[in-house]
Amino acid sequence: MSMEFFVRLIGMVVMAVGGIYLGVYLSRLADSPSEVWASVFAMVGALMGLVVTPFLTTRPIRALRGLVRQISVHTIVAAVLGLVVGLVVAALVSFPLSLLPAPFGTVLPFLGALLLGYLGGAIFVLRQNDILGMFRHRPGTGEPGVREESARTVLLDTSVIIDGRIADIAQTGFIPGDMVVPAFVLNELQHIADSPDGLRRQRGRRGLDILNRLQKDSGLTFRVADLDVEGVREVDDKLVILAKQLRSRILTNDYNLNRVAELQGVGVLNINELANAVKVVFIPGETFDVHVIQEGKEPGQGVGYLDDGTMVVVEDGKNHLERTIPVIVTKVLQTAAGRMIFARPESN
After folding, report:
1. CA dist 168 to 74, 82, 161, 250, Å?
2. In the chain, N or C: fewer CB atoms in 10 Å?
3. CA atoms within 13 A on the CB side of 5
4. CB proximity list for 149: less than 8 A, separation 6 or greater
5. What does the alpha-carbon distance between residue 152 and residue 167 come to, in Å, rounded to a whole number?
6. pLDDT digits 0-9 by tens, 255-309
């Protein structure tokens, strides 16, 4: 039995009883048989209770829960602090206002409490970053008002979890702030893990394994949060909206999500961009060893790969297939797909 159905039953009974009392009262005024009036109003009350009760109880509560889940903890704390400050100020001014002649002495203290409470909460929410920053201290300095970059939240996208490199990167300490996986991202990951397609199922299970690994690492600040965005179906759209609400950044390797988030003013940490940035840089004339694994597009060429995935095209490399040889860099080409290195065997 759902909670809404249970509330409907209670509302139906309460409204039916109320209808009986109302019917009896009206029958006395009309000097008519009370049984007919009580029966009619009881049925009308029961019907109204069955239909109207959820709109007065469970529906508003559900909407309020959805609204609270979308609001960040910082905003809630700032609003409560502002409300307390506003009510304290209202209490200080209520005494002189109460000395005014009626009806001002009765009405103005109440209106002042409402107005100052609202202004306090609104001002604190608008300046929440500055106000909460006063309570933060940089470790070892004791200086107030310094906002720590590491205190910011980073939301994890489904693609970056399935990718798996996030676990190794997080252990190095390069991820600033707390890593958070919203509930809708976890649900999408579970849906992928239950997919009838074998490849998708394997990718989903790999993502769940990565989350389990992150959660077990005591040195990482990682958590799965019960966060959601009402009225939006797409996971990427939810992630961007939630990041704007929490003033956080998104960790992803999805190119489209990266561009959409940047257009909406949301900060993005892209794993692929990080990987390209930390690749070893070679200049013409440098030498290194490469394992030639296949032929190239042009006659006589061989192709190998570095440990970071960079393609190396070796002139006359066809004669060295399945061998590791020293090569000299002749040209480095940056393309949309990544960096390519052209080289020739050192022995030539």
Report:
1. 30, 42, 11, 18
2. N
3. 2
4. 176, 177
5. 19
6. 888 888 888 888 888 888 887 777 777 888 899 999 999 998 888 999 999 877 7
Got the DSSP string for 248-282? -EEEE--HHHHHHHHHTT--EEEHHHHHHHTSPP-
185-231 pLDDT tens trace: 999 999 999 988 888 899 999 999 999 888 888 777 888 888 778 77
Note the Cα 235 to chain centre separation in Å.
Answer: 10
Q: Reduced to 3 states, what is the DSSP secondary structure of residue 285?
A: coil
Residues 6+ apart with CB under 8 A from 209: none
Q: Which fold has domain 287-345?
A: OB fold (Dihydrolipoamide Acetyltransferase, E2P) (2.40.50)
Reduced to 3 states (helix: H, G, I; strand: E, B; else coil), residue 92 is: helix
- 149-277, CATH topology level: Rossmann fold (3.40.50)
pLDDT in tens, 67-105: 777 677 778 888 899 999 999 999 999 888 888 888 888
HSE-CB of 18 using CA atoms within 13 angstroms: 12
The Cα–Cα gap between 199 and 216 comes to: 26
Lowest pLDDT segment from 133-147, 195-209, 262-276, 317-331: 133-147
Nearest residue to 170 via CA among 183, 184, 156: 156
> What angle (nearest 5°) sits at the alpha carbon of residue 257, between those of residues 256 and 263?
95
Residue type, 173: G
The pTM score is: 0.51
> What does the alpha-carbon distance between residue 122 and residue 318 come to, in Å, rounded to a whole number?
71
Domain extent listing, the chain:
3-56, 65-131, 149-277, 287-345
Q: 287-345: same fold as 149-277? A: no
Exposed / middle / buried, residue 1 (Cβ in 10 Å: 0-12, 13-18, 19+): exposed
Name the DSSP class of 220.
Answer: S
